[in-house]
Design a protein that fits this description.
Structural class: mainly alpha
Number of helices: 19
Helix content: 55-70%
Order of helices and strands: HHHHHHEEHEHEHEHHHEHHHHHHH
Largest sheet: 2 strands, antiparallel
Strand content: under 5%
Distance between the termini: 42 Å
Radius of gyration: 30 Å
Number of strands: 6
Strand order of the largest sheet: 1-2
Length: 434
C-alpha cells in the first residue's frame, strides 16, 4: 500500500486511528449491553462513552512493553476512563475485538468498491450505447474471425462488472459478522445478548459459531471475490492494450497535453494506464492464496492468519479500489477510431464472411465437408495474397461453387449488416428493454 496507488477514502479505513476508534465502539457498545443485563453499573457504561479516549502514540508505547496490541489499547483507555475501566472487556477475548473490527473494515471497504463499480457501470453503459452499431472485427486467438461492434465489446464488459457487483455485495454480507463470544467461543463469561447488541450497533450480523475466531472461510470468499474483480479489470485492460498496438490502433488511451510517452522516443504514446491496471490486478489476485490458506486454523484458535490479514486487508482493498477508479477514467476518456476499425475489418479480402458462404452451400445441397473444402481452398488463396485478392471474386469464378450458388446468391452473403442484426437483442439482455 503506497501513496502512488492509493485513494485517501480507502486508506482512512485502515489507519490506526480508525482501527482503534472501532475497537473503542465495540467495547463501549458491549458495556451498554452488559449494563442492560445488570452485569455492570449503568454509570460505568456512561463513563466509557463520556471519558473514553486513546492516543495512537501512547498505545504504540505501551505495546512495545506488553507486546500485545489489545492490552496496550485497553491500558491506554483505562488511563482516561479511570476506575470504571475495570468493567471494560468483561468476559471478552482479544479476538472478539479484532475479528469484529475486521468485519467492520472489510464491509466499509466493500462499500467503497461497490460504489467504484457503480461509477464504472455508468461509463461502460454510456460508451457501449455510443458505439452500439460501430462495426469492428471480432477476433479469436488474436486472428480475424467475424464482425461484431465495439459497443458489444463494452456491453460484455458491463455485464461482467455487473456480475462483479453482485459478487461483491454477497461477499460483503458474508464477511460483515460479529463475534463477542469469549474464550473458545462458548459465551461462558459473556451473554450472547452482548454479541447481538454489538452486532446491531456496528451494522453486522452475529457469527453462529465463532470458536473464539470468526471462521476464515468468510474472509477467503471475500478476497477470492476481489481476485475475480481484479481479473475482470485485467481482461478489459488487456483488450485496450491490444487495440492500441500500432498495427491495430482501433482505440487508445487518452494522451494529455504535455504527457510524455518515452524518455528516449518522443513519438511514443504508450498504453500506460492499461498496463498499470494489469500489474495491479496481479497483486490483488496474489492475495487470494494466503486468504485461502488462512481457513485451516488450529483447533478453536491460532493467530497464523493475523499477520496475513494485517497485510492483505489494506493492500488488496486499497489496490483494487484504485484500479477500479483508474479503469473508469480510462474508459471514460478512451479514444475510439471507427474508421480504423472498418479498415481493419476489410483488410482480409472478405474472409470474415466465409461462414455465411459455407452455410449457404450446405443449404443449397452440398455436404458440409464439400462446402468447407470449397470455401477453404478459395480462402487460403486470399490469405496467402495478403489482402490483394477478394474472396467474393474467387468464389464467383469457381465453377464448383457456382454449381451450387449462382453469383446473385453469393454477393448478398458479404453484407456486413447481416452480422449486426441482433445487436439490439443483446443490448436488451444486458441493459433492459429501455
Amino acid at each position: 500500500m503506497i501513496p502512488r496507488y492509493s485513494r485517501p477514502e480507502m486508506v482512512t479505513i485502515w489507519e490506526p486511528e480508525t482501527r482503534f476508534r472501532i475497537w473503542f465502539e465495540i467495547e463501549a457498545h458491549a458495556m451498554d449491553a452488559l449494563a442492560e443485563l445488570g452485569v455492570i453499573p449503568k454509570d460505568a457504561a456512561a463513563t466509557m462513552w463520556a471519558k473514553g479516549k486513546f492516543e495512537v502514540e501512547r498505545i504504540d508505547e505501551i505495546e512495545r512493553e506488553t507486546r500485545h496490541d489489545v492490552i496496550a489499547f485497553l491500558t491506554n483507555l483505562a488511563e482516561h476512563v479511570g476506575e470504571p475501566a475495570r468493567f471494560v472487556h468483561q468476559g471478552m477475548t482479544s479476538s472478539d475485538v479484532l475479528d469484529t473490527c475486521l468485519g467492520v473494515q472489510l464491509a466499509r471497504a466493500a462499500d467503497l468498491m461497490i460504489a467504484d463499480i457503480d461509477a464504472l457501470l455508468v461509463v461502460l453503459r454510456r460508451r457501449a450505447f455510443e458505439f452500439r452499431m460501430t462495426p469492428t472485427i471480432g477476433r479469436s486467438h488474436g486472428i480475424h474471425a467475424e464482425p461484431t461492434t465495439f459497443g458489444l465489446k463494452l456491453a460484455q464488459a458491463y455485464a461482467e462488472f455487473d456480475r462483479c457487483r453482485d459478487r461483491l455485495v454477497a461477499a460483503r454480507a458474508e464477511v460483515a459478522t460479529c463475534a463477542i463470544s469469549g474464550a473458545v467461543g462458548t459465551f461462558a463469561n459473556v451473554d450472547p445478548f452482548v454479541e447481538a447488541h454489538v452486532a446491531k450497533a456496528m451494522g453486522l450480523t452475529v457469527e453462529p459459531v465463532s470458536t473464539q475466531v470468526i471462521p476464515r472461510d468468510r474472509h477467503a470468499m471475500y478476497f477470492a471475490t476481489l481476485g475475480v474483480v481484479a481479473g475482470c479489470v485485467e481482461r478489459l485492460a488487456t483488450e485496450v492494450r491490444h487495440l492500441q498496438r500500432t498495427e491495430v490502433l482501433e482505440a487508445e488511451e487518452y494522451f494529455a497535453p504535455g504527457q510524455k510517452g518515452s524518455s528516449a522516443m518522443p513519438h511514443k504514446r504508450n498504453p500506460v494506464l492499461s498496463e498499470n491496471l494489469t500489474g495491479l490486478a496481479r497483486l490483488v489476485r496474489g492475495y487470494v492464496t494466503p486468504a485461502l490458506e488462512n481457513v485451516a486454523l488450529w483447533h478453536e484458535r491460532d493467530i497464523s492468519h493475523s499477520s496475513v490479514e494485517r497485510m492483505i486487508g489494506p493492500d488488496a482493498t486499497v489496490t483494487l479500489d484504485f484500479a477500479l477508479v483508474r479503469l473508469t477514467g480510462m474508459i471514460d476518456k478512451l479514444l475510439v477510431y471507427p474508421e480504423r476499425m472498418l479498415a481493419n475489418l476489410n483488410k482480409m479480402g472478405g474472409l470474415i464472411h466465409s461462414q455465411r458462404v459455407l452455410l449457404a452451400l450446405t443449404q443449397a445441397g452440398a455436404s458440409r465437408e464439400e462446402a468447407y473444402g470449397l470455401v477453404q481452398r478459395n480462402a487460403m488463396q486470399v490469405w496467402q495474397a495478403d489482402g490483394k485478392l477478394q474472396l467474393l471474386d474467387l468464389l464467383v469464378a469457381d465453377p464448383d461453387v457456382t454449381r451450387w450458388l449462382p453469383t446473385a446468391e453469393i454477393e448478398p452473403l458479404f453484407d456486413l449488416g447481416y452480422h449486426l442484426k441482433h445487436v439490439d437483442t443483446i443490448f436488451a439482455r444486458v441493459f433492459g428493454a429501455a
